User: Fold this.
Amino acid sequence: MLRKKKAVIFDLDGTLMDSMWLWADIDIEYLGRYGHELPLTLQTEIEGMGFTETAMYFKERFGLPDSIEQIKNEWNRMAYEKYAKEVRPKPGAYSFLRYIRSHGIKTGIASSNSRELIGACLKSNGMQGMFDCITISCDVPRGKPAPDVYLSAAASLGVEPESCLVFEDVPMGIRAGRSAGMQVCAVEDDHSMDQQQEIRRLADYYIRSYDEVLSGTYEVLS
Assistant:
């Protein structure tokens, strides 16, 4: 999987970090303030959207009175303590990061989340100095499944897309990496188990733990 790769780029939520569990509660609380229940299809509807795109979608879909910036600021406030104190890396992620960095492979993050929340969980888990670039969907014209955030990360790293390996957990993210001309390894996450068939159809590799990359026990899908 790592053969001829000069850079590894990670999605954050559900991929590098076990964090998807917290967003349903935040969405329920936030929408409840305005008399809305959480739609069962919401996670699928917003999959891949950047932080700003998601705020715009919420404002229009639910007729929210807050501005886009107010919505984003409130989400950051509601989620910050959890990202700073409760969110932890996926199994084997820290060891895998140490390994690839020790072997001269550049590392980046390409996430739909906010810089504030990314920074909070990286700092609390001792990872803040382990990435050569952090790119978010708000930095680029289009969120996932467009390739923009991954192409921007590759440019920041100074690596050609075909020499990058992407780790992702959901179909929209996998499509983004593949559209950027990169190979993609899918990372198992409880919150995307209902999308397994699509994930396996789209990805090049599949892992349940980053330890499988180093041990060579990962699944080759294509």
User: Anything to note?
Assistant: The first strand starts at residue 7 and ends at 10.
